[in-house]
């Protein structure tokens, strides 16, 4: 600084003139003001950037629509579906009609284009053990309906002890309407599946003729047509029938009392199938099933469910159902998907699966890959 003079190694400070001091103070305060302002702008900039990034990750696939009063709309359930429970809940609720009179902008999530399932068998996605198993116990103990993680945990135990048994796939695989991820087990299989979003059943082809599966439904429910079509599709994906039909045998099994224990009966049926015992022969002690499952989860092993000392008489199957399957994908008929018959084999094929020419009428000769 110019006002500091050096003399014999001692610093001697000279007081600056008052106007210089004033000027300095003014400069400093100006600078501090600028700093404040700069800090504020930087904060705003950073916040705007964060907001933008957040919106970018949150609003993926969101499109804004102009809706008018009285339009019919569906509301997307925006909760995180990747979380463990609630995977089987409905993805959309409604229909609703917007009722506000003001100009409204509602956003709706545009469904992502579904990945098409490749033709032919897919590998299975095994059910995994639930890491934090004590969290599973309260639901079992309280008498509530079992969730996907309970059934997956049970299936993972069975897969560990019975490596020769196929499927035991994660239950989420069966959720999507198109069943894109349902695997085709190489071995005879056991599989717990959810139907209608609120009911657990077990499927198995152990001891069944070719292209046939036994269905263990402890409620003896009649499925609605949509759930039935989906289940047929899943069974077709698991069996990949080589003949023209798939057959479902409805097991004459013990009927559950109440509505909450279907998961326990599904696990009990799967367990006895794995142990080589016909589930139809079993008369389980329903009151003891929850305690037994808790004990098994704690011990890390699934043992046979305790039975009453009663010989159960049964007809093995109380209903047998045949469903025709078509095309290279071996799927049942779906009225929503266009099919064409081959002029030689008379077999039916989907347009997508068999590259059927776009323009086709009664006079077009169509010959499938199998007949070429
Ligand atoms: Zn097809
Ligand atoms: Zn043909």
Nutshell version of this structure?
This protein is 28% helix and 19% strand. It contains seven helices and 15 strands. It has helices at 18-58, 137-142, 148-161, 225-239, 262-274, 289-299, 351-354, and strands at residues 4-7, 10-13, 62-66, 73-76, 92-96, 105-109, 166-167, 189-195, 199-204, 212-216, 245-251, 317-326, 331-332, 339-341, 348-350.
Major beta sheet summary: 7 strands, mixed
Which fold name fills CATH's third level, the topology of the domain at 130-326?
Adenoviral Proteinase, Chain
Helical percent range? 25-40%
Mind telling me the CATH class of the domain at 130-326? Alpha Beta
What general form does the structure show?
extended
CATH second-level architecture of the domain at 130-326: 3-Layer(aba) Sandwich
CATH superfamily of the domain at 130-326: Adenoviral Proteinase, Chain A
Mean residue pLDDT: 87
Strand content: 15-25%
Bound compounds, each kind once, are: zinc ion
Number of strands: 15
Low confidence ranges = 1-7, 101-111
* H/E series: EEHEEEEHHEEEEHEHHEEEEH
Q: What is the number of helices?
A: 7
Cα-based radius of gyration, to the nearest Å: 33 Å
Distance between the termini: 98 Å
InterPro entries: Papain-like_cys_pep_sf (IPR038765), Znf_FYVE_PHD (IPR011011), Znf_PHD (IPR001965), Znf_RING/FYVE/PHD (IPR013083)
Protein name: Calcium-responsive transcription factor
């Amino acid at each position: 600084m110019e006002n500091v003079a050096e003399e014999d190694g001692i610093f001697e400070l000279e007081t600056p003139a008052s106007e210089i001091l004033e000027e300095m103070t003014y400069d400093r305060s100006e600078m501090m003001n600028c700093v404040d302002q700069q800090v504020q702008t930087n904060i705003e900039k950073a916040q705007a950037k964060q907001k933008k990034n957040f919106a970018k990750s949150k609003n993926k696939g969101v499109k804004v629509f102009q809706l008018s009063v009285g339009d019919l709309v569906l509301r997307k359930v925006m909760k995180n579906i990747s979380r463990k429970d609630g995977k089987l809940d409905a993805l959309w609720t409604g229909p609703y009609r917007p009722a506000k009179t003001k100009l409204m902008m509602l956003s709706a999530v545009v469904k992502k284009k579904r990945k098409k399932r490749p033709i032919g068998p897919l590998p299975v996605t095994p059910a995994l053990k639930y890491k934090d198993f004590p969290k599973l116990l309260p639901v079992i103990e309280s008498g509530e309906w079992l969730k996907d993680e309970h059934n997956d945990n049970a299936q993972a135990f069975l897969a560990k002890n019975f490596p020769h048994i196929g499927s035991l796939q994660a239950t989420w695989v069966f959720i999507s309407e198109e069943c894109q991820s349902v695997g085709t087990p190489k071995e005879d299989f056991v599989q717990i599946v959810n139907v209608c979003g609120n009911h657990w059943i077990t499927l198995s082809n152990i001891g069944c003729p070719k292209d046939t599966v036994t269905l263990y439904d402890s409620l003896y429910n009649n499925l609605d047509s949509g759930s039935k079509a989906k289940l047929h599709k899943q069974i077709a994906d698991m069996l990949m029938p080589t003949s023209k039909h798939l057959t479902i045998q409805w097991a004459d099994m013990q009927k559950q009392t109440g509505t909450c224990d279907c998961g326990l009966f599904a696990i009990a049926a799967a367990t006895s199938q794995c142990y080589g015992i016909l589930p139809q022969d079993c008369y389980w002690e329903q009151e003891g099933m929850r305690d037994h499952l808790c004990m098994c989860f704690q011990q890390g092993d699934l043992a046979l469910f305790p039975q009453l000392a009663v010989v159960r008489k049964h007809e093995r199957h109380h209903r047998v159902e045949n469903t025709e399957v078509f095309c290279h994908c071996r799927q049942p008929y779906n009225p929503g998907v266009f099919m064409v018959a081959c002029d030689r084999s008379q077999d039916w094929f989907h347009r997508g699966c068999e590259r059927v020419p776009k323009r086709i009428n009664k006079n077009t000769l169509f010959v499938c890959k199998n007949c070429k």
